[in-house]
Amino acid sequence: MKRVFDVVFSLIALLLLAGPMLIIAAWIKWSSPGPVIYWSDRVGKDNELFSMPKFRTMRVDAPQIASHLLEKPNEILTPVGSVLRRYSLDELPQLFSIIKGDMSIVGPRPALYNQQDLIDLRTQLGIHVLLPGLTGWAQVNGRDELAIPLKVQFDRYYLENHSLMLDILILKQTFTVVLEYRGVHH
Q: What is the pLDDT of residue 184?
């Protein structure tokens, strides 16, 4: 049931967002040199690596580490990068990873290949058996502001309680968090 939900939701989202995604791609191409899509090596189900697409928000010479760990991330953002990140628009190409089967709509966010502390904790708790998600329980409860052990506890909660109803709740909360956190609703 989850796989059917993922594919149907992603196909509908891609149909609705095809125009805006083309505009974003043109905006990126116009505003900075380099490719429109950035392929990030991520850890997927059973700790298998996969390439995850994102709209490129940083210069092509940016280091491959989690952006919240960068000393001055604003200095390496492209001219449109901050807008894309603020509204999570850089994540839209991941809908293709969901259709491919590398990701799910809801699950733990995929770790970077070099986030060994996060990978190890998730493996110890059995979380690595889940498909990573476009959004997840940890995402709606603090995102990158969470310390890794707390993020993993949210992932563990999802592992132990995941259901279609919880996925729908997380999706609803994701849209609310994105809109409120990004300053769209007050």
A: 47
* Residue 54 host element (H or E): strand 49-55
b/e burial code for range 153-168 (CB count within 10 A of at least 16 → b): bbbbebbeebeeeebe
Q: For residues 52 and 102, is the Cβ–Cβ distance under 8 A?
A: yes
- Each residue's pLDDT tens digit, 143-170: 778 899 999 999 999 999 999 999 999 9
CA 153, CA 121: separation in Å to the nearest integer?
9
Rounded Cα–Cα distance for residues 17 and 24 (Å): 10
CA dihedral 66, 69, 136, 38 (to 10 degrees): -20
**Residue indicated by tokens 């392929």:** 39
Query: How far apart are alpha carbons 17 and 26 in whole angstroms?
Result: 14
* Residue spans of alpha helices (H) in the chain: 2-31, 81-86, 94-100, 116-124, 148-161, 164-181
What is d(CA 54, CA 24) in angstroms, rounded to the nearest whole number?
Answer: 11
Q: How far apart (Å, rounded) are the C-alpha atoms in residues 59 and 76?
A: 6
Confidence (pTM): 0.87
In residues, how long is the chain?
A: 186
